[in-house]
From TrEMBL:
Gene Ontology CC annotations of this record: plasma membrane
Location of the protein in the cell: Cell membrane
Signal peptide interval: none
Topological relation to the membrane, as annotated: Multi-pass membrane protein
GO molecular function: transmembrane transporter activity
GO biological process: amino acid transport
Annotated protein name in UniProt: Urea ABC transporter permease subunit UrtB
Keywords of the record: Amino-acid transport, Cell membrane, Membrane, Transmembrane, Transmembrane helix, Transport
Sequence intervals crossing the membrane: 12-31, 38-54, 60-83, 136-156, 186-211, 223-247, 259-276
Family the UniProt entry places it in: Belongs to the binding-protein-dependent transport system permease family. LivHM subfamily.
Length: 285
């Protein structure tokens, strides 16, 4: 029972991380149809924000508050300088964001140097959950991820900004016709997605190796999550996160992480083949 509960909690931790990273990507890729290969670097920027604040003597929580702000700033600059000029040129967007990702990696490396950066979790202890003992910080991470997802769902479904986003997605020309500033809506949505990715980076920093290249792995998994679950759907995002995160966690106990990643990729390809519109959205073909 101890092994089963621990495995489930580890899976839930990874699912929570992937859900946050995928949530930001779902906004840019799933809703705005922008293939942003620099999305993983928003995660990296968030992690380095926590490291920087702690290295200056600040608390983890102060660093975690700075993480989404750092992600939002980088995302806003990227959208204003590059993305908004390439909405109608998807291939150019891919190339441009790939170049930006390399620039950000090298910039972080030049600023903070080589080698992994240590980030201390705010709580070091464990909690007794009857069937097992589990790190308290991981439980906090799961709770924050769940609250963030709930907040985004409420933002999209219950606010005027959420209505603007849904209107622009369904018909951009009609949205402009009724007076919605589509450029402003896209800019805010992209920046918001970058902020969520920055938050994900801040949360995962105590559990991961904080390096300038750390965002690459999260980018690949986030694309798996969004595509497998179903593009443009919060339910699909959750389904994709459970599929990728759950399968990865279970396989990591049995085989090497590299082989586990390969099997997850193969499973994702099979899932997309059987359900092209996603696990949550579409019917099988």
């Amino acid at each position: 029972m101890d092994f089963v509960v621990t495995t489930l909690l580890n899976a839930l931790t990874l699912i929570s991380i992937l859900m946050l990273v995928g949530l930001g990507l779902a906004i840019s890729f799933g809703l705005m149809n922008v293939t942003n290969l620099a999305h993983g670097e928003f995660v990296t920027v968030g992690a380095f924000a926590v490291y920087f604040v702690q290295s200056m003597g600040g608390s983890f929580w102060l660093g975690l508050a700075a993480a989404p702000i750092a992600g939002a700033v980088v995302g806003c600059i990227l959208e204003f300088a590059i993305i908004r000029h390439l909405y109608s040129r998807p291939v150019s967007t891919v190339l441009a964001t790939w170049g930006v990702s390399l620039i950000l990696q090298q910039g972080l490396e030049l600023t903070f140097g080589l080698g992994a950066k240590p980030v201390t979790p705010p709580i070091e202890g464990t909690l007794d959950l009857v069937f097992t003992v589990y790190p308290a910080y991981r439980l906090i991470l799961i709770a924050i991820a769940a609250l963030t997802l709930l907040g985004v769902v409420l933002l999209i479904s219950r606010t005027s900004f959420g209505l603007d986003i849904r209107t622009v997605i369904q018909n951009r020309e009609m949205a402009e016709g009724v007076g919605i500033n589509t450029r402003r809506t896209y800019a805010i949505a992209f920046t918001f997605g970058a902020a969520i990715a920055g938050l994900a980076g801040g949360l995962v920093a105590p559990l991961a190796i904080v390096l300038p290249q750390m965002g690459v792995n999260y980018l690949a998994n986030a694309f798996f999550v969004v595509i497998v679950g179903g593009v443009g759907s919060i339910g699909g995002l959750v389904a994709g996160s459970v599929f990728v995160g759950g399968l990865t966690s279970v396989l990591n106990y049995q085989i090497s992480p590299s082989l586990a990643q390969a099997i997850v990729l193969l499973a994702a390809i099979v899932a997309v083949r059987l359900r092209p519109n996603g696990l949550f959205n579409g019917a099988s073909r």
